[in-house]
Amino acid sequence: MIQRLSLASRLALLFAACTAVVSLLAGVLFNRASEAHFIELDQQQLDSQLVALRSTLQGVDSAESFARREAQLRAELSHQPDLTLRITRAGQRWFDGAPGMTLPDSPGLHSLQDAGTDYRVYNAPLMAGTPDSPQLSLMLDITHHQHFLQRMQHLIWLTVGLSALATALLGAWAARSGLRPLRRMGDVAAGVSAHSLTQRLPQEQMPAELAELAQAFNAMLGRLDDAFQRLSAFSADIAHELRTPLSNLLTHTQVILTQPRPLEDYREALHSNLEELQWMAQLVNDMLYLAKADHGLLMPKREPLALADEVDTLLEFFALLAEDAQVSLVREGSAHTAGDRGMLRRALSNLLDNALRFTPTEGVVRVRIEDGVRLTVENTGEGIPAELLPRLFDRFYRADPARHEGSSEHAGLGLPITQSIVRAHGGRIFCESGAGWTRFVIELPAPD
Question: 137, 239, 330, 443: most buried, per Cβ within 10 A?
Answer without folding.
Answer: 137
